[in-house]
Write a structure and sequence with these properties.
It contains 18 helices and 8 strands. It is mainly α and 526 residues long. The chain has 2 domains: 207 residues, Serine Threonine Protein Phosphatase 5, Tetratricopeptide repeat, CATH 1.25.40.890; 243 residues, Serine Threonine Protein Phosphatase 5, Tetratricopeptide repeat (Alpha Horseshoe), CATH 1.25.40. Strand 7 and strand 8 form a beta hairpin. The longest helix is centred in the first third of the chain and has 26 residues.
C-alpha cells in the first residue's frame, strides 16, 4: 500500500498528469498543479475513470471468467503439441493457484490491485483538489459526484476479489481491503479494513455521489457516471448485502426513469445472427448506436478475448473456450414443440456466443464456442460506440427479481412471486425469438419448473448467468450464493482441479509484491 500511495499520490499530481492535457506540458513537472476546474476535469478523465484507448486502455480483470464454470479447457487442442505448451500460460488462474498473480505476471490485465488503487488515488486527487481550483461551483459538484460513484465502484470490486462475501460469517470481523480516502502522503502503512467497513465506505460514497449527480450532473455520455449509474450500483451493493428491500428500492428508482431493453428479435441483422453469420452483425447490448439499456459502459473486446489466447489466428485453436455447461443452459426453442425453422429460441445464444475455428493437419475446419461479444461483431475492437462491460437495465430487472424471490422465500407472499416472474418474463421476452411465434412465459413452460420458491430462485440465478455472462458477475455471484463446488480439467492427459464448497480459494490472494511492501497486510488463508 505504501508503494501505491507514494507512487500515485505524488506522481499522479506532478508527473502522470502530463498526459492529461497540453496545459501541463508548459510547466516544470515539479510545479505541475491543476489550477482550474477544466484542468482538474482532464485529470478525472485520465486518472479516475477506466481508460478507453486503442493503445493504452485499461484491461480490467480479463481473467475473472477463467475462475468460473463459464469456461473450460478446449479439448480440441489435445492433439496440438505447440498449442499445449501455451496452456501453461493460464493454468495458475484456471487451477485457482495461490501464486496465480506471480506466475501469470506477464499476462495483460493481471495487475488488478495496482490498477484499482491507482484509479482510487486518481479519485482522491480530484476530491482533494476540488476546493483548490477555480471555476464553476456546480461543475465541481458534478465532478465530485462522478468520482465518489467511481470510487465506490472500484472498492466494490476490490472487496469482492480480496475479501469474503458480505454474507459469509461476520463482515465486521472478516478482513477486506485497505481504505485510502485521501491523496495525502504520510508514509503510513495501511492495514486491511473489515469487509463491513469497506462496504460502509462504498455506501457512503455512492449515496453522496448519486445525490450530487442527481442535482448537478450534466454528463450525457454513456462513458460517464450518472445518478442512474450510482443507483444501479447501490442496488447491486444491497443485493450483495442481502438487504432485499433497498435492492428493490434502487432498482425501482432506475427502472422508473430508464426501463428499456433491447428486443433482439427486432434487430435489423437478426437473420444473420440466426443463420450463424455473426461476423455480419453489429447489434448488441453494449453498442450504444442500437442499445437502449446502457447506463454506463467501459472497456473493449480485449476484455473478453485475452483469456482465449488464440495463438496464431485460425491455424490453431484457442486454449480455453466457453464451457459446454454454459452453452447448454440456453434454450434452443421459445417453447418445446416449436419448429426450429421459425423459432431460434434464446437469441443471446445466437448474438453473443461466437464460434471459433481451426484447421487440423488434413485442413479440415473445426468449430467450437470461442468467446462472448456484447457489442456486435462488425464494429471492431476499438469502436467508441461500443464497449464490453458496464451497467445495464437488464441487471436491475434481475436484481429486483432475485430480491422479490428472497422476500417470497422468507414471507411466503404470492405477490412477491408474481413480481419476480413479471421481471424475469419482461427480460426474457426481449431476448427470445418472437419473429414468428409468441413468447411463452416462464410459468407456462412445460420444461421449466418454478413451482416452489427454491426452484424459482435457482431459475433466477440461471437467468442471471445467461444474461450477465462475461460481464464480471459470475465469480461474484458464485461467491455470494454459497461458494459451490467447481471442477476444472486442463491438459492432455487431463489434470483435474477442484474448488470445494466454501473453499478459501474463493477469496483471491493479495499479490506477494504488495505483501512485501506492507508488513501490516494480512494474507488471505489458503
Amino acid at each position: 500500500m505504501r508503494r501505491l500511495i507514494s507512487r500515485y499520490s505524488i506522481l499522479l499530481v506532478f508527473c502522470v498528469l502530463t498526459g492529461c492535457n497540453d496545459f501541463l506540458e508548459e510547466t516544470s513537472q515539479s510545479e505541475v498543479r491543476p489550477s482550474t476546474v477544466e484542468e482538474l476535469y482532464q485529470v478525472m478523465l485520465g486518472e479516475a475513470y477506466p481508460r478507453m484507448t486503442s493503445l493504452n486502455g485499461d484491461i480490467i480483470m480479463p481473467y475473472l471468467e477463467l475462475l468460473t464454470d463459464n469456461m473450460q479447457f478446449n479439448d480440441v487442442v489435445s492433439g496440438n503439441e505447440a498449442v499445449l505448451n501455451l496452456v501453461e500460460k493460464f493454468r495458475p488462474i484456471f487451477s485457482w493457484k495461490k501464486e496465480m498473480y506471480e506466475e501469470c505476471a506477464l499476462v495483460n490485465g493481471m495487475g488488478t490491485w495496482d490498477l484499482y488503487y491507482s484509479r482510487i488515488c486518481g479519485c482522491n486527487v480530484v476530491l482533494d483538489y476540488l476546493d483548490r481550483v477555480s471555476g464553476d461551483v456546480e461543475k465541481k459538484y458534478d465532478m465530485r459526484g462522478q468520482v465518489l460513484v467511481l470510487r465506490g465502484w472500484w472498492y466494490l470490486q476490490l472487496v469482492n476479489l480480496y475479501g469474503l462475501p458480505y454474507n459469509e460469517g461476520d463482515p465486521a470481523k472478516n478482513p477486506g481491503v485497505p481504505l485510502k480516502l485521501s491523496m495525502e502522503v504520510t508514509g503510513e502503512l495501511f492495514p486491511r479494513n473489515s469487509v463491513a467497513e469497506v462496504y460502509g465506505q462504498i455506501e457512503k460514497d455512492l449515496l453522496e455521489g448519486t445525490a450530487l449527480l442527481k442535482k448537478y450532473g450534466t454528463e450525457t455520455s454513456a462513458w460517464k457516471m450518472s445518478y442512474l449509474a450510482g443507483m444501479s450500483l447501490l442496488s447491486r451493493m444491497y443485493l450483495y448485502m442481502e438487504n432485499w428491500d433497498k435492492a428493490i428500492v434502487y432498482a425501482d428508482s432506475v427502472l422508473e426513469v430508464r426501463s428499456g431493453l433491447c428486443d433482439f428479435s427486432k434487430f435489423d441483422d437478426v437473420e444473420n445472427a440466426v443463420s450463424g453469420n455473426i461476423d455480419k452483425t453489429y447489434s448488441g447490448v453494449y453498442n450504444s448506436s442500437v442499445s437502449n439499456e446502457i447506463i454506463w459502459m467501459y472497456g473493449n473486446s480485449k476484455e473478453n478475448t485475452l483469456y482465449t489466447s488464440m495463438t496464431s489466428g485460425s491455424l490453431d485453436p484457442a486454449l480455453y473456450a466457453i464451457s459446454d455447461e454454459l452453452v447448454d443452459c440456453f434454450e434452443k426453442l421459445n417453447n418445446p414443440g416449436n419448429d426450429s425453422k421459425v423459432d431460434a429460441g434464446d437469441l443471446r445464444r445466437c448474438y453473443e456466443i461466437v464460434s471459433g475455428y481451426y484447421y487440423d493437419s488434413q485442413r479440415v475446419k473445426h468449430y467450437y464456442p470461442y468467446w462472448v461479444t456484447k457489442q456486435g461483431r462488425a464494429n471492431g475492437i476499438y469502436s467508441y460506440s461500443c464497449s464490453a462491460k458496464g451497467l445495464r437495465t437488464a441487471e436491475l430487472y434481475l436484481n429486483r427479481a432475485e430480491a422479490y424471490i428472497q422476500k417470497y422465500r422468507r414471507e411466503g407472499s404470492a405477490g412477491f412471486r408474481e413480481r419476480a416472474l413479471t421481471d424475469l418474463n419482461r427480460l426474457r421476452e426481449s431476448r427470445f425469438d418472437t419473429r414468428h411465434v409468441a413468447y411463452v412465459p416462464v410459468e407456462s413452460r412445460t420444461d421449466i419448473d418454478v413451482s416452489t420458491a427454491d426452484k424459482l430462485y435457482d431459475f433466477c440465478l440461471l437467468e442471471r448467468r445467461r444474461e450477465l455472462m462475461f460481464e464480471d458477475h459470475r465469480w461474484f455471484d458464485l461467491r455470494r450464493t454459497g461458494m459451490p463446488r467447481l471442477e476444472h480439467k486442463v491438459g492432455s492427459p487431463a489434470t483435474t482441479y477442484v474448488l470445494e464448497v466454501g473453499s478459501p480459494h474463493y477469496v483471491l490472494p493479495i499479490p506477494e509484491a504488495v505483501m512485501k511492501d506492507n508488513a501490516r497486510l494480512e494474507q488471505n488463508k489458503y
